[in-house]
């Protein structure tokens, strides 16, 4: 089998296509979560904390004080910044993604349990003979006696 044929089989496997779709949807979901954190949650948290915008929060190593990232970048100073606000945004985004995935997996596991219980109930129903057959078996046993 040639290398091109092996590559075709590898690339066109169902699992490979499913994984590609998952990665694309994951990227789009990441964009949604980033917007949720940056545009919805962080402004609300900033408002509750007295107007502090975490996305712009940084610590200047040269001045040894908290500064706004936009103010420093606007001035184009040579300060070295530790942008802890961006890190906080990323951490919140991670927690949201982890929570959503946890809930998704939990729902999938519950659905699998429900399906397994339904299958077991169907097998139980199928294994029990109908009432007419039970009566016929009783009659047969009485006739044998």
Quantity of strands, as a count: 3
How big is the Rg? Answer: 31 Å
Low-confidence stretches: none
Any idea what the CATH superfamily is called?
Large-conductance mechanosensitive channel, MscL, domain 1
Strand line-up of the largest beta sheet: 2-1-3
In CATH, the topology is named Non-ribosomal Peptide Synthetase Peptidyl Carrier Protein, Chain A
The count of helical stretches stands at 5
**Fraction of residues in H or I helices:** over 70%
CATH class equals Mainly Alpha
Main sheet makeup: 3 strands, antiparallel
Q: Determine the structural class based on helices, strands and strand pairing.
A: mainly alpha
- How many domains? 1
The general outline is elongated
CATH architecture: Orthogonal Bundle
Q: Mean pLDDT, as a whole number?
A: 79
- The portion of residues forming beta strands comes to 5-15%
Distance between the termini: 71 Å
Order of helices and strands: HHEEHEHH
Summarize the structure.
The protein is mainly α and 145 residues long. The protein is 75% helix and 7% strand.
Explain the overall architecture:
With 145 residues, the chain is mainly α. The chain has a single domain (3-144), classed as Non-ribosomal Peptide Synthetase Peptidyl Carrier Protein, Chain A. 75% of the residues lie in helices and 7% in strands. It contains 5 helices and 3 strands; from the N terminus they run H-H-E-E-H-E-H-H. The chain has helices at residues 3-11, 14-48, 69-75, 84-127, 131-144; strands at residues 57-60, 65-68, 81-82.
């Amino acid at each position: 089998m040639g290398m091109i044929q092996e590559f075709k089989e590898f690339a066109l496997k169902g699992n490979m296509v499913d994984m590609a779709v998952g990665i694309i949807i994951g990227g789009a979901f990441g964009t949604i979560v980033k917007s949720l954190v940056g545009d919805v949650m962080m402004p609300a948290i900033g408002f509750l904390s007295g107007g502090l915008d975490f996305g712009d929060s940084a610590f200047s190593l040269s001045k040894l004080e908290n500064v706004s990232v936009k103010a420093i970048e606007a001035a184009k100073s040579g300060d070295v910044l530790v942008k802890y606000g961006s890190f906080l945004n990323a951490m919140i985004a991670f927690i949201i993604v982890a929570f959503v995935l946890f809930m998704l997996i939990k729902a999938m596991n519950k659905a699998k349990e429900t399906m397994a219980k339904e299958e077991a109930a169907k097998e139980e129903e199928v294994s029990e003979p109908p009432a007419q057959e039970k009566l016929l078996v009783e009659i047969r046993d009485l006739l044998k006696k």
